[in-house]
Amino acid sequence: MSSKKSRWENDSAEDAEEAARRKAAKEAKRLKKAQKAEEEAAAAAAAARQEQEHDAALAVSDEPPSKRRKVSTEPDEHAPTPPTASARYLDRDDGEAYLLRFPAAAIQPCNSVDDYEPLNRIEEGSYGVVSRARHLFTGEIVALKKLKLEKETDGFPITSLREIQTLMAARHPHVVNLREVVVGDQLNQVYIVMDFIEHDLKTLLDDMPEPFLQSEVKTLMLQLLSATATMHANWIMHRDLKTSNLLMNNRGQMKIADFGLARTFGDPCPPLTQLVVTLWYRSPELLLGAEEYGPAIDVWSIGCIFAELILKEPLFQGKSEIDQLSKIFELMGVPTDANWPGWRRLPNSKSLNFPRTKQTTGHLLRSKFPLLTANGVALLASLLSLDPEQRITAEDALSHAYFREDPKPKAEAMFPTFPSRAGQEKRRRLSPSAPARGEAPQLFGDVGLEGRSGLFAGMEEEEVGGGFSLRVH
């Protein structure tokens, strides 16, 4: 019998080795899968246990609550000093994220308007009614503005939201201070509490027998420009600067108020509404229908206020938009492509005809303000520039030469005081009292003979001479 080796013997050994290797790999894969299943089951059990503990902690127990340890508000001298945030951070070596707590104002409900006692109504505007009130606990006198919400059907008005937002953002010594917002029992009873200021500039100018001195005008203008520059630096336009919206106290301090039309702007400025600013203080680009404008409209209003402080009356008192444009162009000159490039592209300029001669171009401020210095006229001309791009900014106007020349700005403490119409004060006049009821007094004695003084003193000792007499025919 032949002992010849089969030629398939080596192949069978290699197949067996490959089969064993595959079997081992399959077993290792099965063990790994089982281990993964065990880990997932353990994680699920831990999550379920944690959820049960959380539910148990939130469950309401019928047992009375345990007594809490009384915490004293007095500091403990022997207590260790709590570590700072950096120290706590350095003590943590595990690398785990944690939350740091910092002191901040807490969110709390508004106070009630019942905390204030109404005294008298000051004025009513388009967006609210302003009254004078007294805080019942502190006794402070404040201004209480009730927002007009009776006709609102779409929630809180956007104008009031803008007013509150801009008052909070434009904190400045010459911007009226917003104290708080209080509410009443009804949804439409929302009030803004502000500092009470004795006068508004419009009423004060009407009651003053003489206008402000140049030194006083400079002080008021510096205050107005400083507050406006701060607003513009915070991307806020007031859009309704006028003397009736400028308040003044008896310490020579002016404050900007009534931010009902104020809003934020950007660069580039988005399309905005055209119907802003009271007509007498509205800039020519707004009158000509500009849809894109910037803080230069506030600067034009400041120029009008500057002139009003000097004249004691508004500079441009137009009866309509066209009449207002006519009065502006009569004083400042008709615009041309040289002094206002692109003004013909404004919507309203295409339908209006303007005369253009040498007599109608250029401003006439020098003849309108003969007592104003050259630097004062230059500042007024830069504030009332027809082209908003060439109009001076509030920040640059603060450093104008007009404020450095004589007379220097008057100190606030040296300003005169005036009786407050809003505070129901009356001016005291040195005059006789009204006669009381009764009989008319009987008059006795010689008139002008005894106890005479002044012009008739020593009349008896005078010598009598020839003199002369006048005969009236």
From TrEMBL:
GO BP: any one term: regulation of mitotic cell cycle
Family as reported in the entry's similarity comment: Belongs to the protein kinase superfamily. CMGC Ser/Thr protein kinase family. CDC2/CDKX subfamily.
Entry keyword Plastid: no
UniProt cross-references to PANTHER family, sorted A to Z: CELL DIVISION PROTEIN KINASE, CYCLIN-DEPENDENT KINASE 11A-RELATED
Family matches, as Gene3D superfamilies: Phosphorylase Kinase, domain 1, Transferase(Phosphotransferase) domain 1
InterPro entries per record: CDK, CDK11/PITSLRE_STKc, Kinase-like_dom_sf, Prot_kinase_dom, Ser/Thr_kinase_AS
Molecular-function annotations in GO: ATP binding; cyclin-dependent protein serine/threonine kinase activity
Pfam family, one: Pkinase
Biased composition (Basic and acidic residues): 1-10, 18-28
Chain segments carrying region Disordered: 1-90, 419-444
Reaction equation(s) it catalyzes: L-seryl-[protein] + ATP = O-phospho-L-seryl-[protein] + ADP + H(+); L-threonyl-[protein] + ATP = O-phospho-L-threonyl-[protein] + ADP + H(+)
Annotated protein name in UniProt: cyclin-dependent kinase
Top-level class of the enzyme under EC nomenclature: transferase
Superkingdom assignment: Eukaryota
